[in-house]
Each structure stands twice: as C-alpha cells, then as structure tokens.
Specification:
- The structure holds 2 protein chains of 2 kinds.
- Chain A has a domain of about 70 residues.
- The longest helix of chain A has 21 residues.
- Chain A has 9 helices and no strands.
- By secondary structure, chain A is mainly α.
- Chain B contains 9 helices and no strands.
- The longest helix of chain B is centred in the last third of the chain and has 25 residues.
- Chain B starts with 9 loop residues before the first helix and ends in an 8-residue tail after the last helix.
- The chains are: A mainly alpha, B mainly alpha.
Chain lengths: ~180, ~200
C-alpha cells in the first residue's frame, strides 16, 4: 500500500502530535543548552525590517524614535543574529518535510464557504495584527510563548494565556472564515 | 556546564540554523503548515496545536530542570524574557486576534510558505506590514511599551509557589487538557475536514 501511495504522490499522514511535541521540546531544550536561548520566528522579520530601514531611512532607525534602535546601535548589522539563521532553517526544514511527505504544492488554502479573495485579505490583515501584537509581546508564539513556558517565565504564560483566551473569545465572530 | 555557547557566538549561528531546520521540519510534519488545521483549535475540530504546543513546553521545562539537577546547565545563565505587564497582555491579545483572522503565527507561516501555501505568504507579508506600522508610530506608545517592567520574573515567583510544585501542576493541567480535547474532538469529529 505504502508504495502505491508514494507513486501516486498522495500526501502522507501527519506525525503523531505528542511525538512531534516531545521532539520539539527536545529541540528547545538543546537550543537552551547549546546557545543560551530558545526558538524564535518573529525576531528575524523585525531584524529584516530594521535592516531595510538602516539602508533607506537610517535617520529614523538610528534614533530613539525607532523600536529597533537597539538592533542597530553602534553601527551593528541587525541581520548578524542567530534568529536570522534560525528562520532560514525553518524554511529549509519545512520544505524538506513537505518534499519527503509529498505536500509541496502551490495553493491558497481556504474554507469552501469563503472565496480565495476573502481568505487572502484575512491573511494579510491577520498577519498585520499579529505583527503589531508580537512587537508589543516581545516575541511571538515561539519566542515569547513556547520559550517562555519552557523556562517558566511569567511573560510566556501571560502571552500564551492571552493568545488562546482572546482567540476563543473572538473565534465566534470569525467562524465563517473557517467552518 | 551548559549553556555551552553564548547566543552571539558565531557557533551559535550554525547551531541556530540546524535547530531551525529541526523546528521547521517538525512544524510541517505535525501539520502546522495548514491554516485550517491550526484554526481548528479555536473551533474544536482539531486540537493538534494545543497538543504539540503543550507537549513541547512540558518536555522542555522538565528537561531543563533535570539538566540542572545533573549539573549540566546553569539555569540562572539562560535567557528569560522580561515581563512588561501591560505590553505583554496587549501583545498577547493582538496575537490571539491575528491568529484567528489570519490562521497562522510567524513560525508556522514561514514553514507553510516553504511548501507553497499562498495564504501563508500573504500572512507573512501582512506580518511585515504590522512590524513596520509598529515601528512607524513607536513614539506614541513607547512609554506604554516600557512600562510595568517586572524583569525576567518566573511564573512560580509571580504565583508565590514552589518551582517543582508549579511544574507538576502544569504537567497535570496539560495532560487533563489532552484528555478533554481528545474527547471534544471525537464529539465534533463528524465536522472534521480534509485539509
């Protein structure tokens, strides 16, 4: 059966969530053990924005007016940071798993009840809200949430509690997007 | 004794790349490359987010404690995010809203983009716009952003609890949530969809 499936390029089943969770937990553990810090995703994009600002509007980013001043202080390159390498790794790792499990496909995923256009607009707006949120939260689901819970930081538990709490609170209003 | 390298060492860059590959591989393998699967946690038809997320958190938290008992790591030397009360609460709330509307978070959208999900690429574009907006108007809320700094405080300190007792409670709550969500998911399984 498995061979037939491979020939037809059917996407393979997802990994057991608890196995994936334990493995991901070990990755976090070794990240702290080896490098002092855990995972992170939003930091790389913030640093990317800071890099572009450093080139096109240096006066802004090199002042207290910018939230990213500390990334570029003393002429530092904001991209010379481990989180930038980590996000490159995330793209590579995601692609590898997609390739191995036959899930590489250009596709705009959406509920059958909404159009691609609605999904596209919601994705951009949701992304923008998340971008502002992760700036206030000093990290996203991984850097503030997952790492924070791993080291038992109050910030991590508060951020995760708010993400899920508010998520459930507003889910009803946006149900048409998903169910 | 760990941590072996400082986060700014060049070796840390190489290690971060390898860790990122493992991170992205596991996210995609667990199904985090699908926005409809991720959003399921808010509608009761798929709790994989909660299951993976909390399993990873308790595994890492227990692991760090054992590493300390064995004398392999100095926990006082690892990075702990500072807690800025108002900013953390507002940030978390906005991320919850953004998650429900956009269907991703930054890490998952990166790994979903890598396998060709266009909605994930749009989410990432939106995310970058959000970061630019935050920076553009930063002086308006810089005071709020820096207010209420409680430092790298731990949750068991905030709650006035013993560390090990808190971790035990956390593990029990996580396992209870796995059982409960497994039950709910079965109940709503007739709604379960193919992604």
């Amino acid at each position: 059966m498995e061979e037939v499936k491979i020939q037809q390029n059917t996407p393979r089943k997802y990994m057991n969530p608890y196995l994936a969770g334990v493995l991901l937990g070990l990755v976090i553990l070794f990240s702290f053990y080896l490098t002092r810090e855990g995972l992170g995703a939003s930091g790389a994009f913030k640093r990317g924005v800071a890099k572009v600002e450093q080139i096109i509007i240096p006066a802004h980013v090199n002042s207290e007016k910018s939230a990213f001043y500390h990334y570029v202080k003393n002429g530092e390159d904001p991209l010379k940071n481990r989180l930038v390498y980590m996000i490159i790794g995330v793209f590579i790792g995601g692609f590898l798993s997609g390739a191995i499990n036959h899930r590489l496909k250009l596709k705009l995923e959406h509920s059958p009840k909404i159009t691609s256009k609605t999904r596209a607009i919601a994705a951009v707006i949701g992304g923008a809200i998340f971008g502002i949120g992760s700036a206030f939260g000093r990290g996203c689901t991984s850097g503030a949430g997952l790492d924070g819970m791993a080291v038992l930081a109050t910030s991590g538990f508060v951020v995760v509690g708010m993400i899920f709490g508010v998520g459930y609170l507003v889910a009803w209003f946006f149900r048409k997007l998903w169910i | 004794m760990g941590p072996l390298f400082n986060a700014t060492d060049e070796w840390s860059f190489v290690i971060a790349l390898v860790i990122g590959i493992a991170f992205g591989y596991l996210l995609e393998s667990a199904g985090f490359s699908s926005s409809r699967k991720l959003a399921g946690v808010f509608y009761g038809y798929d709790f994989v987010v909660l299951q993976v997320f909390f399993t990873a958190a308790i595994t890492a938290a227990i692991g760090l404690l054992f590493f300390e008992y064995f004398g392999w790591i100095d926990l006082s030397d690892i990075w702990v995010n500072r807690f800025y009360t108002g900013s953390a609460i507002l940030g978390g709330a906005l991320m919850g809203l953004g998650f429900v509307v956009g269907g991703f978070c930054p890490g998952t959208s990166a790994c979903a983009s890598a396998i060709g999900k266009i909605d994930a690429m749009l989410f990432l574009g939106g995310f970058i716009i959000g970061v630019v907006i935050f920076d553009a108007f930063y002086p308006l809320y810089a005071g709020f952003y820096k207010a209420g700094n409680q430092g790298p405080i731990k949750i068991y300190e905030s709650l006035g609890m013993n560390r090990e007792v808190f971790l035990l409670l956390f593990v029990i709550i996580a396992i209870a949530s796995f059982v409960a969500t497994g039950y709910i998911q079965q109940k709503i399984s007739h709604k379960s969809k193919k992604y």
